[in-house]
Amino acid sequence: MVYKLLFLIATLFSAPPLSFGADQVPVEGEYCYHYGDDESVTVAKTKSLAFAREVAVSNYKVWVQVNTSVKDFELEKDWIETIAVGMLQGEKREVTRNIQEICTALKAWINPQEVEDFIVQQKKERETKQRGASQAVAKPTAADEAGAAGKDGKAETEALMKLIMQLQRSITEKDLANLEKISSMSKSRRKWLTTLNANFTTIEIKVGLLERTPDGARVALHFTKGIRPNGKVVIPNEIGGRFNVSVTRSDDRWGPITW
Question: Which of 75, 105, 132 is at the close of a domain?
Answer without folding.
Answer: 132
